Amino acid sequence: MRQKIAAGNWKMNGTRASLPELFAIAGDQHENAEVIICPPFSLLHEALTGVQGTHCKIGAQNCFADPSGAFTGEVSADMVADIGATHVILGHSERRELFGESSELVANKARAAHAAHLVAIICVGETLDDRRAGRAEEIVQEQLHYSLPEGCNGENTIIAYEPVWAIGTGEVPTNEEIAQMHAHIRKLIPDAENMRVLYGGSVKPSNALEIFSIENVDGGLVGGASLKAKDFLPIIDAAAKAS
Ligand code: PGA
């Protein structure tokens, strides 16, 4: 049985004034769902201190592939692990699109994350043009092929399928489209029995239970609706119920 996950990606949102929201989320203990919040780097330390004694896990949203050196502005996987975070999001479509990250770079980052004993949350997903051209499955297959380094398993890797056109838009694929893509991904990943595959893109309290109940969907990676406890707590509930 794969435990369902409710993961929050805060992106470049939140200052210390937002920490009470994070702690309200962390304080809600759920046996049946794994909860991971990924705040910006600037909040990692205080987030980790504040969630001690809860089941909530804290992750970063990125790391660099090299362990140290002249890489101004970058943070290594070892540094993320050193501060106590357990997870790191890699290859989010915003990183791929806005910062030109290739799947090869994502694989190098994931390799570094694994070496630092971090769980890599590796994101894949097609654009609207890809989907309209009937190439969604092919694009995701290619991203998986090049973004997952050797040695990925259900312990050290989580996949997040996030169709780019559904992120922050309020648009969600149909249940059939999600089911089809998740079945496709399940066939392509190593340790498929154990590796969790999340759906991401406009997950909200009103659609979470339905989406998390789809076969091969092991929970969600949530952006906007993870920022406020009033939105994210029902999503955690949905992950627990869908388990
Ligand atoms: P969204 O973002 O939930 O705001 O659509 C999801 C993501 O980018 O991970």
Short recap of the structure:
This protein is α/β, with parallel strands linked by helices and 243 residues long. It has helices spanning 19-26, 41-50, 77-83, 93-98, 103-115, 128-132, 136-147, 175-188, 205-212, 229-242, and strands spanning 4-9, 33-38, 57-60, 87-90, 119-124, 157-161, 196-200, 219-222. Strands 1-2-3-4-5-6-7-8 form an eight-stranded parallel barrel, surrounded by seven helices.
Q: With helices defined by DSSP (H or I, 4 residues minimum), what is the helix count?
A: 10
As a percent range, the share of strand residues is: 15-25%
Order of helices and strands: EHEHEHEHHEHHEHEHEH
Number of DSSP strands? 8
Main sheet properties: 8 strands, parallel, barrel
Structural class: alpha/beta
Helix content: 25-40%
Over the alpha carbons, how many angstroms does the gyration radius reach?
Answer: 16 Å
Tell me the strand order in the biggest sheet.
1-2-3-4-5-6-7-8
Given as residue ranges, the uncertain stretches (5+ residues, pLDDT < 50) are: none
The residue-averaged pLDDT reads: 97
The hetero compounds bound to this protein are: 2-phosphoglycolic acid
